[in-house]
Write a structure and sequence with these properties.
Largest sheet: 5 strands, antiparallel
Number of domains: 1
Distance between the termini: 24 Å
Radius of gyration: 15 Å
Number of helices: 2
Order of helices and strands: HEEEEEH
Helix content: 10-25%
Length: 114
Protein backbone atom coordinates (compact mmCIF):
# COMPACT_ATOMS: atom_id res chain seq x y z
CA UNK A 1 0.00 0.00 0.00
CA UNK A 2 2.74 2.48 0.96
CA UNK A 3 4.66 1.74 -2.24
CA UNK A 4 1.55 2.25 -4.35
CA UNK A 5 0.80 5.51 -2.55
CA UNK A 6 4.28 6.85 -3.30
CA UNK A 7 4.34 5.64 -6.92
CA UNK A 8 0.76 6.39 -7.99
CA UNK A 9 -0.21 9.17 -5.55
CA UNK A 10 -3.14 7.04 -4.40
CA UNK A 11 -3.72 3.72 -2.72
CA UNK A 12 -6.72 1.56 -1.94
CA UNK A 13 -7.72 -0.68 0.93
CA UNK A 14 -10.65 -2.84 1.94
CA UNK A 15 -13.46 -1.15 3.83
CA UNK A 16 -14.75 -2.59 7.10
CA UNK A 17 -17.60 -5.03 7.61
CA UNK A 18 -20.80 -3.14 6.85
CA UNK A 19 -18.93 -0.49 4.81
CA UNK A 20 -19.05 2.11 7.60
CA UNK A 21 -15.96 4.05 6.49
CA UNK A 22 -16.71 7.51 5.07
CA UNK A 23 -14.64 10.19 3.35
CA UNK A 24 -12.63 12.07 5.97
CA UNK A 25 -12.21 9.05 8.28
CA UNK A 26 -8.74 7.89 9.23
CA UNK A 27 -7.52 4.31 9.06
CA UNK A 28 -4.54 3.13 11.06
CA UNK A 29 -2.12 0.30 10.48
CA UNK A 30 -0.10 -1.13 13.36
CA UNK A 31 3.44 -1.54 12.05
CA UNK A 32 6.37 -3.17 13.78
CA UNK A 33 7.16 -5.48 16.66
CA UNK A 34 4.26 -6.17 19.03
CA UNK A 35 5.92 -4.40 21.97
CA UNK A 36 7.45 -1.52 19.99
CA UNK A 37 4.90 -0.87 17.22
CA UNK A 38 3.66 2.37 15.73
CA UNK A 39 0.28 3.20 14.27
CA UNK A 40 0.48 4.76 10.80
CA UNK A 41 -2.66 6.78 10.05
CA UNK A 42 -3.99 7.61 6.58
CA UNK A 43 -7.00 9.77 5.72
CA UNK A 44 -9.73 8.44 3.45
CA UNK A 45 -10.36 10.71 0.46
CA UNK A 46 -12.71 8.56 -1.63
CA UNK A 47 -15.00 5.53 -1.37
CA UNK A 48 -15.59 3.33 -4.42
CA UNK A 49 -18.07 0.49 -4.80
CA UNK A 50 -17.19 -3.19 -4.52
CA UNK A 51 -17.08 -3.47 -8.32
CA UNK A 52 -13.76 -1.55 -8.14
CA UNK A 53 -12.07 -4.23 -6.03
CA UNK A 54 -8.80 -5.35 -7.67
CA UNK A 55 -8.78 -8.88 -9.06
CA UNK A 56 -6.18 -10.00 -6.50
CA UNK A 57 -8.78 -9.32 -3.78
CA UNK A 58 -11.06 -12.07 -5.14
CA UNK A 59 -11.21 -14.12 -1.93
CA UNK A 60 -14.70 -14.35 -0.50
CA UNK A 61 -13.39 -14.42 3.07
CA UNK A 62 -10.12 -13.89 4.92
CA UNK A 63 -10.33 -16.67 7.49
CA UNK A 64 -11.61 -20.21 7.79
CA UNK A 65 -14.20 -19.01 10.30
CA UNK A 66 -17.84 -18.86 9.30
CA UNK A 67 -18.71 -15.40 7.97
CA UNK A 68 -22.07 -13.71 7.52
CA UNK A 69 -20.99 -11.37 4.73
CA UNK A 70 -18.45 -12.10 2.01
CA UNK A 71 -15.57 -9.62 1.89
CA UNK A 72 -16.17 -9.17 -1.84
CA UNK A 73 -19.15 -6.98 -0.87
CA UNK A 74 -16.88 -4.48 0.89
CA UNK A 75 -16.27 -1.10 -0.68
CA UNK A 76 -12.83 0.15 -1.71
CA UNK A 77 -11.33 2.85 0.51
CA UNK A 78 -8.94 5.26 -1.23
CA UNK A 79 -6.33 7.10 0.81
CA UNK A 80 -5.23 10.70 0.44
CA UNK A 81 -1.71 11.14 -0.95
CA UNK A 82 0.09 12.04 2.29
CA UNK A 83 2.85 10.97 4.60
CA UNK A 84 1.33 8.91 7.40
CA UNK A 85 0.66 10.38 10.82
CA UNK A 86 2.73 8.14 13.10
CA UNK A 87 1.82 7.46 16.73
CA UNK A 88 3.28 5.04 19.27
CA UNK A 89 0.98 2.04 19.67
CA UNK A 90 1.93 1.66 23.34
CA UNK A 91 1.10 5.33 24.02
CA UNK A 92 -2.16 4.97 22.07
CA UNK A 93 -3.22 1.97 24.19
CA UNK A 94 -2.33 3.80 27.39
CA UNK A 95 -4.26 6.96 26.48
CA UNK A 96 -7.45 5.13 25.53
CA UNK A 97 -7.18 2.61 28.38
CA UNK A 98 -6.67 -0.52 26.32
CA UNK A 99 -4.88 -3.30 28.17
CA UNK A 100 -1.12 -3.34 27.46
CA UNK A 101 -1.41 -6.71 25.70
CA UNK A 102 -4.31 -5.64 23.43
CA UNK A 103 -3.76 -6.21 19.71
CA UNK A 104 -6.66 -5.98 17.24
CA UNK A 105 -7.08 -8.55 14.48
CA UNK A 106 -8.31 -7.54 11.07
CA UNK A 107 -10.05 -4.25 10.36
CA UNK A 108 -11.82 -2.95 13.45
CA UNK A 109 -13.09 0.38 14.75
CA UNK A 110 -10.83 1.56 17.56
CA UNK A 111 -10.97 4.06 20.37
CA UNK A 112 -8.57 6.88 19.62
CA UNK A 113 -6.65 9.49 21.62
CA UNK A 114 -7.58 12.45 19.39
Amino acid sequence: MKKTLKELDTSAWDSVKGNHVVVGDWMGFIIGDTHDANVELYQVCEIMGPEHRPSHWESKQYTDQEVQTDVDEREVVVFKNQDPVVYSWNQWKSEVEYKPIYMPRGTVRARHPF
